[in-house]
Request: fold
Amino acid sequence: MRVMPEQEWREFLLAGTRTAKLATVRQDGRPHVAPIWFDLDGHTLVFTTGETTVKGKALRRDPRVSLCVDDERPPFAFVTIEGTVRISEDLAELRHWATRIGGRYMGADRAEAYGVRNGVPGELLIRVGLERIVAQAAIAD
Reply:
């Protein structure tokens, strides 16, 4: 097992269409985990979600989150992130990131359609500050 340097874990996060598993806390204190599509913007992880989803409600109450992105193929690797979110409802910014994220996961030819679908009122743009990173590769070696 080895620790990934920053450039490597950034490349790992952006490779292909891996999803992040986002952990939040429900109002009654129970944990909640959901897969998300995401992208990076400097030292920030960016994703969108609906304001009425479990994620959206939880993030308004408590901005602390944990995420995990992993490679399930041997020799296995993962990146975990702890951070604090900032929420934006700015439609231009939301549309930009919804389009960019849609393009990453669905391809450039469908990016605009996802931007139109997800860059609307009722959606939230979430920015997670990358406060603590654990990144390990070659776990089974």
Summary: The chain is about 30% helix and 40% strand. The longest helix spans residues 91-106.
